[in-house]
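Let us work through a complete example step by step.
Step 1: write down the sequence.
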Amino acid sequence: MPITIQCPVSGNWKLHTPAGHHPYSKDFVALDFRLRELSPANRLRYAIASLRSDALPSWDQAVVAPMSGKILRLVQDHDDRAALNFLRDTVQQKIIAPRKGSDDIGYYLGNYIIMEADSGHHVLFAHLRKGSARVIDGQAVNSGDTLAHIGNSGISMRPHLHFHITHPAAEHPDQPVPFVFDHYQSCDDGIWHDEKALLPVDNKPFRTREA
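Step 2: predict the structure and record it as tokens.
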């Protein structure tokens, strides 16, 4: 049975499940008002030159607590990659960095927060912006409280939020559990539709409030 949560971001987004990841291990990618991650000009810069991380809609977007709980762990001292290039980043982030490896989970997640929900679930927010945390270890938080902002730290091709929920008492405590949003709007051929107790389809635009 999926758990129902508040969406941890606000505005126009799409979900993406990274290759090789669990179906409920999600990347949140922000979209502009035309529901694009990259404009044609920025797509060209990203492909053949260099594009700044802060040119993407996900950069510095606020991340909020999807339920009430407390902060278990906070790491926010990893640098963000400021410049993006598709070919270079594909080689570095998808080939070299994973092979190099590290015992430090922050090497992979960058800046991250783990919160423990009142239900006992553990919630991971990864690839946050350096120094952007608005909470401290052990702090109690309510649903909707701002936790931090999205960056481009760790092994990350472009700015985005990596998010999943686990439960330490489950049979497989490290395996993400299913979740749904209490409400959001999905877009179908330019028409927005109200949705409740569902999870947006991967790579399909959705929003969490009226634009």
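Step 3: interpret the result. The helical segments are 40-48, 86-100, 105-109.
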